[in-house]
Amino acid sequence: MTDARVDLRLDRPAAGPAAVSQARTGPWPAKLLLFTLAVPFFFPVGPLFLTADRFLLLLLFLPCMKIWLSGGAGRIILPDIALILFCLWTVLSMVVVDGASSVVEAAGINTVETLGAYLVGRCFVRSAADFRSVARFLVLMILAMLPFALHETLTGQNYLLSVANKVWPSYADVPKEPRWGLDRVALTFYHPILFGVFCGSGFAICYFVLGYDRPRIIRITQTALVALVATLSLSSGPLTALVSQASLIAWDSALHRFRKRWTVLLCGVGTLWISLEIAANRSVPELFLTYFAFNPSTAYNRIRIWEFGVLSIQQHPLFGIGLSGDWVRPWWMGDSMDMFWIVSAVRHGLPAGLLMHLAFMSMVILVALKPRLGDRDASYRLGFLVCMTGFYLAGWTVHYWKVIYVLFMLLLGSGAWLLGASDTQESEETDSAPCGAGTRPRRTWSRDTEDYAQRHPKYTRSENSSQRHKT
After folding, report:
1. Cα–chain-centroid distance for residue 431?
2. Are 61 and 113 in contact (CB under 8 A)?
3. Which positions ≥6 away from 124 have C-beta within 8 Å?
4. This model's pTM is above 0.85
5. Burial class (CB in 10 A: 0-12, 13-18, 19+), 17
6. How many whole angstroms separate alpha carbon 280 and alpha carbon 439?
């Protein structure tokens, strides 16, 4: 019988037939899902509007649920429960507000895109090798888009989308306002914001995962190319994510020998937040939205979205306004709510917004507090956490919908393997350096070991001398 207890620690991954079967499968379903996110084709099936990623998620949903329930994705953790409750609450809110007969399609698609994409990451990214393989595929997709993105931003012609529309019905090339004399790149995505967030998601992952064992010049060059592709969207949301990720990378690079650097950063951010709240004539969110926008009108609109979005939540706190309702706002404001972290609460009530936050924050905190990680897994963890930080900050300036929502859920679920990474890494290191009979496994040299050696040189020399003498 498999163990399906809720475990907040998840020290060891579950074993069993499902886990063995998944190990043979590998991460190809996650990589295939990534590929479908860049496919612009859509397939009308009766009343359903299926895109390539939705079609794949429908095929994978039940197998993923089977793997997860049987223990093949490890123990059940808090983010799993939070997302299941989120899906259930959104269905309940739709039924209460819009009626059961009118929400079957919307409720099903929402569940498949939320829980289905998350479980693809949970079930098929189960080791460092899987995570690196998915990261490499994502970065290769982004770099392959570079020549087409440069052509579009310089000429205003979306070559890939034009070809796609000749093959099968696809998205239309949306009108885009030029910025800085350049055209905003969308390629095969519905909007430049979607293109920018997709490419920006690979920035920190490229640096900390693919760049972990590469020469510094290659590490910086490939990360800079990913940043260049994402920047061509010329959208404030993706640029917010890029700037935040680049800042955290610079902080880690400058203070990598200081063990408490992240504690100092969190304390500094908290102190700065409190100081600005006291001294400034605007709130910190308003300052953030003002300085991370392309122009004052965009910043003003984001602030109004926050104010009237909160007002709408206060007026409909339990079940929200539903899919057919309209949120409270002045007549001159559009109906687009470019703020992901409050959209769920506006549409489906405050419980839905809190559950989405709980799923995200609990995953980030559990991964961040996971002890006993080696250098490689610690670097991979940092890539995941910095990527999620970019998603979190950008989510206050843009809304994640369509393929980017699926990408966000996929990447969120793909970080859960880190919660059981210590045993996995130990076995991989042992397998990679086989020892003869009576030979001790090779020790790995980490930053912690280096710091200890610098503080206690005589003990380190004594231990090395002892080992040489035994040899």
Report:
1. 31
2. no
3. 22, 25, 26, 27, 28, 29, 30, 130
4. no
5. exposed
6. 64
Q: How far apart are CA 225 and CA 220, in angstroms?
A: 9
pLDDT band at 296 (very low <50, low <70, confident <90, very high): low
127 exposed, middle or buried (CB, 10 Å; 0-12, 13-18, 19+)?
buried
Which residue, 259, 257, 253, is CA-closest to 220? 253
CB 388 within 8 A of CB 415: yes
Q: Is the dihedral of CA 351, 352, 353, 357 positive or negative?
A: positive
pLDDT digits (tens, 9 = 90+) for 382-426: 999 999 999 999 898 888 988 999 999 999 999 999 998 764 444
| Main-chain phi, psi angles of 400, to 5 degrees | -90, 115
Q: What is the pLDDT of residues 162-215, one digit of tens each?
A: 888 888 877 777 777 777 778 899 888 888 989 999 999 999 999 999 999 889
Dist. CA 467–CA 354, nearest whole Å: 55
The letter for the amino acid at 314 is Q
Q: Which amino acid is at 68?
A: W
Residue labelled with tokens 């990680």: 373
C-alpha–C-alpha distance, residues 404 and 263, integer Å: 31
Using CA atoms, how far apart are residues 42 and 29, in angstroms rounded to an integer?
20
